[in-house]
Amino acid sequence: MVAGPLACARPAVGAEAGPAPAAVGPRARVAPRTMQAVYDSVRRVLDAGVASGAFPGAWAAVGTPDGVVAVYGAGQLDSADATRPNAGTVWDLASLTKVIGTTSAVARLVADGVVALDTPVVRYLPQWTARGADRVTVRHLLTHSSGLPAWRALYKEAATREEALSQVFATAPDTLPGLRFVYSDLGFILLGQLVERVSGETLADFETRRIFGPLGMRETRFLPPATWLARTAPTERDPWRQRHLRGEVHDENAHRLGGMSGHAGLFSTGRDLIRFARMYLNHGRLDGVAVLDSATLAQFTQVQDSSVSRRALGWETPTGGNSAGRRLSARAFGHTGFTGTSLWMDPEQQLFVLLLTNRVNPTRESRGIGAVRTALADAVSQAMTAASAAAQGTAGH
N or C: which end of the chain has fewer CB within 10 A? Predict the structure, then answer.
């Protein structure tokens, strides 16, 4: 086989080893020189990340609304598992759960007219009886401006899921809502509960029925089955659970909540997340299936209140200092996950950049992922822009 952006060539030449390109997705309608330029930039960044110790393994995909430009897997899953990451590797998404799952689920409920963004959360969750909770709206939770603290150690304070949820419902905002940005896992735990209360389904069932199922995302779920274990990227040698985690959610609070929560717990594969990204760039549709309407999607991906933060609803937007790097447009939106995952989409550049790593293996003290994220976003955007400009210049002659 020929090595290249979508080729599953021999690992010796540096290309991805794994499923055939057809299993990843259709090729984007871009010039071969663009594909090669993007592939080369992704390969350089990921190989450097492995060499620097930022992560043992990584897999990245770059694409457009109509297909994939380049994919590449680097390194290996673990020091004891030399498998090279591929499109079918299962990753703990960590806080990508907040946007892939929870934000999309809330957007679906808003589009259905059963949740209103500026309605107090207690209308949907009357069990949230903490002082000041009545002032917090759904929009506040989605933009991390609720006044809630960032976190609390539910896994130490509670012995069961029910006890942990009681602790969440007893947590009060420590400032008035709408005044400041504090990234809060607690807010997204509440949003997960809101989805369950309004839909009458578990979070897992609602997301599968309304988001993942219609998209054909068959490898995205909470609590992955044992049959996925061999292709799941291990995460940390966890000092709390006293074992090396594999196929078990890394986030301690999500673990205490039974592995299913609005803030963390989803597992997925690259080929599933490519479909998700293409759907968002296609205004909520993919392969003739409408998952979200374009107006709701546009609303959720716009900056809400720039006097407080650059957050959209659930999503981050570029700040010049976050994982979007410096070359994506102001219309881009994305998110990261603690385990080393990230996804950015740019409607202006018609581009998505997906990065999946297990940077917490063997320890969360590995700090190199931030530089890799920004280097990847910048390198890909530059390669796409340069190749496009070169093609236009050639056409002009």
Answer: C
pTM over 0.90: yes
Residue type (1 letter), 166: S
Round to whole Å and give the CA distance between 280 and 293: 10
The C-alpha atoms of residue 77 and residue 80 are separated, in whole angstroms, by 8
DSSP letters for 260-321: --SSS--EEEHHHHHHHHHHHHTTTEETTEESS-HHHHHHHTS---TTT-S--SS-B---SS
Give the DSSP letter of residue 4.
S
* Inter-residue contact 93 to 308 (CB < 8 Å): no
What burial letters (b/e) apply to 318-352, b meaning 16+ CB within 10 Å? beeebbbbebbeebbbbbbbbbbbbbbbbbebebb
The encoded tokens of residue 148 equal: 């809630």
Q: What DSSP character marks residue 221?
A: B
Reported as a pLDDT band with limits 50, 70 and 90, residue 209 is very high
**All residues at 6 or more sequence positions from 278 whose CB lies less than 8 Å from its CB, including other chains:** 25, 63, 64, 65, 66, 67, 286, 352
Type of residue numbered 321: G
What percent of the chain is helix, strand and coil (3-state, nearest 5)? 40, 15, 45
Task: Dihedral sign for Cα 92, 26, 279, 302, please.
Answer: positive
- Residue 240 neighbours by CB distance under 10 Å: 10
pLDDT in tens, 70-126: 999 999 999 999 999 999 999 999 999 999 999 999 999 999 999 999 999 999 999
Query: How far apart (Å, rounded) are the C-alpha atoms in residues 299 and 110?
Result: 11
